[in-house]
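Hi R.,

Here's the input for the pyridoxal-5'-phosphate complex you asked about:
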Amino acid sequence: MTARQVTDDDRRYVFHSWSAQDHISPVPVAGAEGSTFWDYEGNRYLDFSSQLVNSNLGHGHPRLISAIGDQAARLAYAAPSFAVDVRSEAARMIVERAPEGMAKVFFTNGGAEANENAVRMAKLFTGRHKVLSTYRSYHGATTGAISLTGEPRRWPSEPGLPGAVHFFGPYPYRSAFSATSAEEESERALRHLDEVVTLEGPHTVAAIVLETVVGTNGVLVPPPGYLRGVRELCTRHGIQLICDEVMVGFGRVGHWFACQAWDVRPDLITFAKGVNSGYVPLGGVIISAEVAGFFGDRAYPGGLTYSGHPLACAVAVEHMKVLEEERILPRVRALGERLATRLAEIAQRHPSVGEVRGMGLMWAIELVRDRETREPLVPYNAAGQDSEPMTRVAAACREGGVWPFTHFNRLHVAPPLIIEDDELDRGLAVYDAALKIADEYATG
Ligand code: PLP
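And here is the predicted structure with pyridoxal-5'-phosphate in place:
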């Protein structure tokens, strides 16, 4: 097929996510390998967004491809009610790598369904109906998950799930609590949450859902003591702690699960994306022994035709083996330190950079017009003309051969975990050059 045919059929027949259908022009992707993909004209892009922060082992990984082929030849599909070797193996391997006390895995096709099911489990387990989640979060686009989401993508779907309540999580750079240090932010954010729980009625709250490290909505790494504090609050009130690790699980921030960086054990962990780099759709809920036991003698009222799809599970098994054998997690932690240094250098050169923050291979460069006032480079949820500065920065990245991840007034760095040192440096050099455009708007 030519680029023209692909684009023509796409424009004519494909209905795209989150878009006004007549206002988009999707790049026709012709192929991809490792951290790079290319179009039909031969333009190559170093993928600094890992597609949707899920191509963790990059494109075309031979072992993942073989895992699909071998499994397809052996058993492409069996209904979820059967015991299937790769499904059992994937579940066992996931539980073995999760925090102690986690016992079973319920498989889904992706992240939103994982969150839907985690919430269902929490509600049934506690006999309560409210679910608290943070502003500045994304949890998926199905009815429940979008209701939990704390950003503008929720608005058109309102009114949402009854009992969904939002609160402020920590965000030291733009503190909702006028905190002046990370410690103060942690303490005040916990006090705020405690008050929200009190005012909502603790006996009505089934779950608190958190992105362990907030991804798309800012790369917000929880300040010291915060996660532990939320864990304690949940335990005190019999509330289920659900950590949404759809974006950060399976190595993105240098740990199997981000909650392990703070030694916190949630009651339910949701995952998807990085579990198998999206070679075949897969997500799921990792369930504590208590919750799994609760459904020991009462039926769990939920299921999916493709729960634990053998092809997806076969890739997940191989994916975990590769992460381990190629020592990817320690490498991500080392690259995280390299990025911290490089991004700090870049920040110094550009008056438009307000803050850089992140962990492992997930970083945000927050752009401002004025470092003093911290006025964002573009307004919250900017569209059209208002978003022009960010549109220009992103275009400059693409012209430089790097596919960026942008959200509101931020440029994110989230390449595949297998990115080579020289590729990372090349991508950062392109970001560095593109930031000169943002500097044109900086007045502070
Ligand atoms: N949770 C988080 C933190 C996410 O980043 C996403 C997707 O970006 C989801 C949930 C939803 O996952 P999916 O798109 O697979 O339904």
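One thing worth noting: The mean pLDDT is 98.

Cheers,
M.
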